[in-house]
Design goal:
This protein is mostly beta strands and 672 residues long. It has 2 helices and 51 strands. The chain has 3 domains: 163 residues, Jelly Rolls (Sandwich), CATH 2.60.120.560; 177 residues, Jelly Rolls; 293 residues, Tachylectin-2, Chain A. 2% of the residues lie in helices and 46% in strands. The strands form 11 sheets. The chain has a 7-stranded antiparallel sheet with strand order 1-40-51-42-47-48-49, with no helix packed on it. Strands 17-2-21-20-19-18 form a 6-stranded mixed sheet, with no helix packed on it. The chain starts with 11 loop residues before the first strand and ends with a strand.
Length: 672
């Protein structure tokens, strides 16, 4: 990036202009204890030994508790080897390899990424596969020294704990072999002590944390180096905003690539103070992996509809889906199928859960009510229950009762979209469809009058994936979704405030309550000269703003980066376009075939508010877990767009303009 030093740059320290209180999530504890009611079934010496006495019983579950002494090492080592069953390793990971486990989130000060891993051999239908959990030691408060490692296989989950803290989890598909009549374990006594093995697995319970722990609500990700926010479903209910999200580990590669998703839950009453609740739909069986759904209210109860993605685990004839479709073909409607009525079939399709207290404490219905595996259940303007059916089904369905029967009233609408949400705002009704679809129509118009908003370049997609739109208590509308990080499925949570124009078009802006907490800022330039301006940011995360006086055909560009990588944002007044790129080369909008959902290089069309003086706000957030930086932009308080740049460190910024007059460039560091 070139360095420019124009006349008129003023550096005025401690000019507070973006100070705010921040928005925080109170996290649940990640500390657990294990109930040990009796003696272990076996004790494995630090030097290894024969385990034939209990190996066959480990199929349904076991817990291994092992003292581990971690010290800086040069060569990789296998700490425990139980052939055909278990391997524990200490190894150096490639600092550039972010795939699946995202271990570089815990890089050490010297640039190395040592990791502790445990692999369990399971037997899904396709044959033996190793399921690996692990942690980069750079994330530990005390990487070197003595620790207690607990490996915990429940028959449903494979977990690693260090000193009682859950550091990684995957969801099992398959079980250990029953053929291990005799097993000899080999151990490295340089690192481990005597292991205690319990069969069946021990009971585990959550312990209170030593002190409350918080994280920022905007750009939230769950605890864990490989844990991300997936598809979001939100609702306002009795004074609280609820965000349900599919927790994703390993970028959609959990459960041997079959997903292993389920709904976690956040809520807030004021958007400043958020609470992380217990999981709304925890995985309790190996056949469970869940798809997108929607929260809704029925008979004054808070509920969530969601899909069982069982077809990702088993052949269709092994699931309840053929039985449900046979009933639909014969009778023209669905039937309710209790889980315990399916004999040898696995539940699949639409189910729901109900909150027992109206805030959290969800209870699964254990009923299949429709074959759709991504259902959106809602109540229409007449109070009828309706469903938009996606994935393994399609069309719009209705029912007088939640359990059904559900009947199809439109086979061809919505015409696309994997995860669709419907909402009404004033005189307009909208449907958004996952990553690339959006339609609208007047509320009073028939269903065939929905128009394709994307085809006109007037959609609301701004880099968020699978957006969920909700009207909150004060009449405002919010959009929540997730941002792709490093090309993987899942990423940080982002919440926008929406605005509506008279023609039904929707814009977006930063939500004031969720702006980052910032320190005192500084004025970088009162007026940007003809050659532009550049400055060192002095921090990895910050809020930048500048004012713009438009002309008839002005252009402004912001470049962020360092000597290795840059991200450029452009705004063109004549075409009313904004875009992200690497170097100013043209990017495509969604209408033109671009991919905002990739959160890379893309363009937005029909930007409003450029005909009078306006402000551009930019939030830059750099996090080791993300392996780079988010660049989030608000234009004239009417349109937002976000990108993620792998490896980007926004150490320098440069602003250039043609025609437009840029002034009052301000920067304020984000507090940690």
């Amino acid at each position: 990036m070139k360095r420019l030093f124009p006349i008129g740059i003023l550096l005025i320290a401690c000019l507070s202009f973006t100070s705010c209180k921040g928005s925080k999530v109170l996290l649940r504890s990640d500390l657990y204890s294990f109930n040990t009611p009796g003696e272990p079934v076996a004790v494995l010496p630090a030097s290894g030994g024969d385990l034939k006495a209990f190996s066959g019983g480990m199929q349904e579950g076991f817990t291994m508790v092992t003292p581990v002494t971690l010290a800086d090492f040069d060569e990789d080592a296998e700490l425990i080897s139980i052939p055909g069953l278990l391997s524990v390793k200490l190894r150096h990971h490639d600092p550039n390899d972010i795939a699946k486990q995202n271990y570089p989130a815990g890089v050490m000060a010297d640039g190395r990424v040592p990791v502790l891993e445990a692999s369990l051999t399971l037997y899904p239908p396709e044959g033996a596969r190793d399921m690996t959990v692990g942690v980069p030691l750079g994330l530990l408060a005390r990487p070197w020294g003595e620790h207690e490692m607990t490996l915990h296989f429940t028959g449903v989950a494979w977990e690693m704990y260090l000193d009682g803290h859950l550091v990684d989890r995957d969801y099992a598909f398959g079980y250990p072999s029953k053929e291990l009549a005799s097993v000899t374990a080999v151990c490295d006594s340089r690192y481990i002590g005597e292991s205690r093995i319990y069969v069946p697995c021990l009971e585990v319970r959550e312990m209170p944390a030593a002190k409350n722990e918080y994280t920022e609500a905007q750009y939230f990700t769950p605890r864990g180096h490989n844990a991300w926010v997936g598809d979001v479903a939100a609702i306002w209910y009795k004074g609280r905003y609820h965000v349900f999200y599919l927790l994703d580990r390993r970028g959609h590669q959990g459960k041997f690539g079959r997903g292993g998703h389920y709904f976690e839950h956040l809520s807030t009453a004021d958007f400043k103070h958020w609470t992380e609740h217990e999981a709304a739909t925890p995985i309790e069986h190996q056949w469970e992996t869940m798809g997108t759904g929607a929260p809704f209210v029925w008979h004054d109860s808070l509920m969530i509809s969601y899909g069982m993605h069982t077809s990702r685990l088993y052949n269709e004839e092994q699931t309840a889906s053929p039985r449900e479709w046979a009933h639909i073909r014969e009778f023209g409607c669905s039937e309710v199928l209790p889980f315990d009525s399916l004999d040898s079939l696995y539940p699949s399709g639409t189910t729901f859960c109900v909150s027992r207290d109206g805030v959290a404490s969800f209870e699964k219905s254990r009923l299949i009510i429709h074959p759709a595996e991504n259902p959106t259940i809602y109540t229409d303007n007449d109070g009828r229950l309706c469903m938009l059916a996606n994935y393994a089904s399609r069309g719009t369905w209705t029912s007088s009762d939640l359990r059904g029967p559900w009947s199809c009233i439109s086979e061809d609408f919505p015409p696309g979209g994997d995860c669709t949400f419907i909402f009404t705002w004033g005189d307009w009704q909208y449907i958004v469809g996952g990553f690339v679809n959006m339609w609208k129509k007047p509320v009073s118009a028939p269903i065939e009058d929905y128009e394709d908003v994307v085809a006109k370049g007037l959609d609301l997609y701004d880099g968020l994936c699978v957006p969920s739109i909700t009207r909150i208590g004060d009449g405002r509308y919010l959009m929540a979704g997730w941002v792709t990080v490093n090309g993987h499925w899942g990423g940080p949570l982002v919440v926008r405030e929406l605005l509506q124009y008279s023609d039904g078009t929707i814009g977006s802006r930063f939500m004031p309550e969720m702006m980052p907490l910032t320190s005192c800022g500084k004025m970088l330039a009162r007026i940007v000269g003809e050659e532009g301006m550049s400055a060192a940011t002095g921090c990895r995360s910050f809020v930048l703003s500048f004012d713009v006086e438009p002309s008839s055909d002005g252009h402004v560009a912001l470049t962020l980066g360092d000597a290795e990588r840059t991200c450029r944002w452009d705004l063109d007044e004549a075409t009313c376009r904004a875009q992200f790129s690497n170097d100013g080369s043209p990017s495509k909008s969604l209408r033109e075939g671009g991919a905002p959902y990739d959160a890379g290089n893309y363009a937005l069309e029909n930007i409003r508010g450029l005909d009078k003086p306006f402000t551009v706000k930019v939030i830059v957030k750099g996090e080791p877990k993300w392996g780079g930086s988010l660049v989030d932009v608000e234009i004239a308080g009417q349109r937002t767009m976000i990108t993620h740049r792998h490896g980007l460190k926004a150490e320098n910024l440069e602003i250039t303009s043609t025609g437009m007059k840029v002034k009052n460039v301000r920067l304020s560091p984000c507090r940690q």
